[in-house]
Write a structure and sequence with these properties.
The complex is a heterodimer. In chain A, about 30% of the residues lie in helices and about 25% in strands. Chain A is an alpha/beta fold. Chain A is globular, with a radius of gyration of 21 Å. A two-stranded antiparallel sheet of chain B has the order 1-2. By secondary structure, chain B is mainly α. The longest helix of chain B is centred in the middle third of the chain and has 12 residues. Chain B contains four helices and two strands, in the order E-E-H-H-H-H. At the A-B interface, strand 4, strand 6 and helix 6 of A face helix 3 and helix 4 of B. The complex binds flavin-adenine dinucleotide.
Chain lengths: ~375, ~90
């Protein structure tokens, strides 16, 4: 069995930021990610980020990813790609299916002193008649196809959902040369930011609010969908059906935190609708209800890259402190700065409800932990 | 539940379990995700419920008139990601 001081599951903004902080303080860090490239969602995000300038808004997600990778390398962070954390056992033994350079895989158990879970979130699906037809996929999956693998998912796309993911991916699908036929949104209002919505509108693509997909049809793959208007009780209004021809339907219906490792290890969870469902309880150090196991980023509640990054930093600093690489005063100074930035990110009409949700989770932390 | 969810609609693709089978499991006494899973195998396939768990929770909430937090979630066992027998047979380093 190998030994590492800090083992991190997930190399998205949360996992990489955690790795950088812990390694900068002097800890020996390994990050494991199942993708063929580290960076999590960042390398799919070819658009400029929103938010304040202190938080790298105006910078493209992929450029933040490149900066973080360079920093991780500078501090000697070890990264295993194409490798999945498949288990987490008592006394912090992390089981990994490691991808080798020759394409083979091997099972490795690592004895860690501290574990940080930063596994992100997964896309929600939506049920309608025919939802399992080929050509129907998550919006994030379509984004991975065009921006990472440079493969068009099809020619004519109907997007379900008008939150930021739905809006941004629609625009990027158009940039990639797809014809976006329409956006369909069940709520009476567009969910995402005005800047993103106006790009869609300017391109002449209709956004049908108070509408949903009733049925998808096709033989080998989807060839058309029926949409209909919804009444105030979210029921389809008969006679309002429209048929849209398409060969791709992308679902942007929100994300849910990936909590498999958390649940495997019996960390206490709490249900939080704002954050997308069940999330692990944690304290202000991002430590879970089991000492030495930390959680950060979308795993703790679906938010954004910047909050994921700051939460990752917190967990990295806290782990380094617990390992004795930072004094309590040094760690406090770093953590206070991070919390100030996090509070800043959780403000305004979009951020405030996440601030309240986070406070609920922090208040729910048991006084004595396992 | 709304009529748009026909009984023959697939919910768990891995194990090919339909809305109707899940409704029947609930009628037979399943109260949460684990109850449905034990009776139908929904969520026991390759993806281990990553796609369907949320839909099973929605059906439970609708059929039993309970909140989403009361529908529970699946118990998790390693490996949390699918691995091959070949890898397992290689032993653990
Ligand atoms: C279309 C879209 C647009 C967005 N735009 C913005 C924006 O403009 N601004 C903004 O701030 N945010 C944006 N976000 C949100 C942002 O991308 C996420 O909040 C952020 O990436 C979360 O970071 P994370 O590190 O928690 O998770 P992720 O970035 O998802 O990284 C998690 C990583 O963990 C890995 N992993 C999971 N399970 C395992 C396992 N068992 N073993 C090994 N590895 C594992 C995954 O492969 C992944 O690489 C956007 C999201 C989307 C989908």
């Amino acid at each position: 069995m190998l030994n590492r001081e800090v083992v991190i599951a997930g190399a998205g903004p949360a996992g990489l930021a955690a790795a950088i902080e812990a390694a900068k303080a002097g800890a020996q860090v390994l990050v494991v990610d199942l993708n063929i490239k580290p960076g999590g969602q960042l390398f799919k995000q070819i658009h400029k980020f929103f938010g304040s300038s202190a938080h790298r808004s105006g910078i493209r997600g992929m450029d933040i990813g490149t900066q973080m990778l360079a920093e991780a390398e500078k501090y000697g962070v070890e990264i295993w790609i194409n490798s999945a954390v498949i288990g987490l056992y008592s006394d912090k033994i992390v089981s990994i299916e490691r991808g080798l350079e020759n394409g083979e895989k091997e099972l490795v158990n690592i004895q860690a002193k501290k574990v940080i879970l930063a596994t992100g979130a997964s896309e929600n699906v939506v049920r309608f008649k025919g939802w399992t037809l080929p050509g129907i996929m998550g919006a994030g999956a379509a984004q991975t196809m065009i921006n990472v693998n440079r493969v068009k998912p099809g020619k004519k796309v109907v997007m379900l959902g008008s939150g930021n993911v739905g809006l941004i991916v629609s625009y990027q699908l158009m940039q990639a040369g797809c014809d976006v036929v329409a956006l369909v949104e069940a709520a009476p209002k567009i969910g995402g930011y005005g800047v993103h919505a106006s790009k869609i509108r300017r391109a002449g693509v209709p956004i049908y609010t108070s509408h949903t997909i009733i049925e998808a049809r096709g033989t080998d793959r989807v060839s058309e969908v029926t949409i209909a208007e919804l009444d105030s009780k979210w029921q389809p209004i008969p006679g309002t059906e429209k048929v849209l021809e398409c060969d791709v339907v992308t679902l942007a219906a929100g994300l849910k935190p990936i909590s498999d490792l958390v649940r495997l290890h019996d960390l206490d969870l709490t249900f939080n609708a704002v954050f997308g469902g069940w999330v692990p309880k944690h304290n202000r150090d991002m430590e879970s209800t089991q000492s030495g196991i930390y959680v950060a980023g979308d795993t703790t509640g679906v938010e954004e890259a910047n909050t994921a990054l700051e939460e990752g930093r917190l967990s990295g600093v806290a782990a380094a402190e617990a390992l004795g690489y930072l004094t309590a005063e040094q760690a406090k100074e770093l953590k206070d700065d991070i919390w100030e930035r996090l509070d800043g990110l959780r403000m305004g009409p979009f951020g405030e409800k996440r601030m309240f949700a986070k406070n609920d989770i922090l208040a729910d932390f048991p006084a004595c932990v396992k | 539940m709304e009529k748009k969810f026909d009984d023959d609609m697939l919910v768990c693709r891995c194990e090919e379990i339909t809305v109707g089978e899940i409704r029947q499991a609930i009628a037979e006494g399943a109260l949460d995700v684990v109850g449905v899973k034990r009776r139908t195998r929904a969520g026991m396939g390759l993806c281990q419920g990553k796609t369907c768990e949320k839909m099973v929770q929605q059906i439970l909430a609708q059929e039993l008139c309970i909140g989403p937090e009361q529908t529970g979630s699946s118990s998790i066992r390693p490996p949390v990601r699918p691995i091959t027998f070949g890898t397992l047979a290689g032993g653990i380093k």
